[in-house]
Model the fold of this input.
Amino acid sequence: MHRSNPTIPAHYVEILDECTRRPRVWLITGVAGFIGSNLLEQLLALRQPVVGLDNFSTGTQQNLDDVLARYPDAAESFRMVRGDIRDLDTCRAVCRDVDTVLHHAAVSSAPWSIGDPVTTNAVNVSGFLNMLLAARESRVRRFVYASCSSVYGDNTLPSQTEEQLGESSSPYATSKLTNEMYASMFQRVYGLETIGLRYFNIFGRRQNAGSEYAAVIPRWITSLLTGSRCKIFGNGEAARDFCFVANAVQANILAAVAPLSATNQVYDIACGESTTLNELFRMIRLGLAGFTRTIASDPMYEGSRPGDIRHSVASIERAKHGLGYAPSHSVSQGLSETIEWFIGNNRTQDAQLVSASGGDDIVLQGAL
Done:
């Protein structure tokens, strides 16, 4: 796989410099999870005071340790709270004296949510409402939250735009759409500034490869490195807009400092490019060829899973104009960095152990 350097948008560089000059207090919910820990890494690099909340149902101490090992001098700027967003008092405690909330604690698996809609609603809807209430009471300035492309449901348009939704295909998708409506109402009625980020297939370092509902990229990297055949649901021609986690981190920070005119909105966060699962498999196998003698076996094909969406690609025009968002990493660049990280951190062995022991198949807070 050809490796090229990412292009960091000049506007984003200016925002990062401004954050360094004028620190604010940030709260990250789901901080021990995949996206949460990447947000923590960037904020500690900027010497920002950060409060983290996670119940460690899927987030891990290993993720936090990995971040803190990179920035040991910044550890004193980070306060970790073990707790659950389903508890309103916990939400109130972590929101005190916070300027900006980056909310990523959630049940984050559509297939799992179909089996347990009650827990999905309790975490994603009731827990989300708790966080909005606590943020309003504490006079938090900006509430940025993770939504998801699953809200587009059965929309079959060639490119998803924020205004055109389809019928929901899972309790997870319904919960995320409910979040968007609650957030908009809280800004209109209570004055809490909110911005939603509709993520499209985020991938990257520290993404869980061991769960039954793990995202396809870490699972395939792990499978190929351990000599196992990869599993593709459907015929492999389902297309996704895969987006490296650095792009999602950029979107969060831009949303946190965006002008008031950009609030009370949701934004698609992606690369704006479509990649089929078959193409993705070939890219990963090619990328691994430079590191190991990967068994070049063909993938196994199985039936489609309930709740899965066949085609998904984003229009990122609103994010470009409203937030100044411009992806720094292409899919190829993101895969190169992700593969390097998985190999360098020996996560394949960890994933094998999780799989052998049955794993934690329940995808709860911190999994995003």
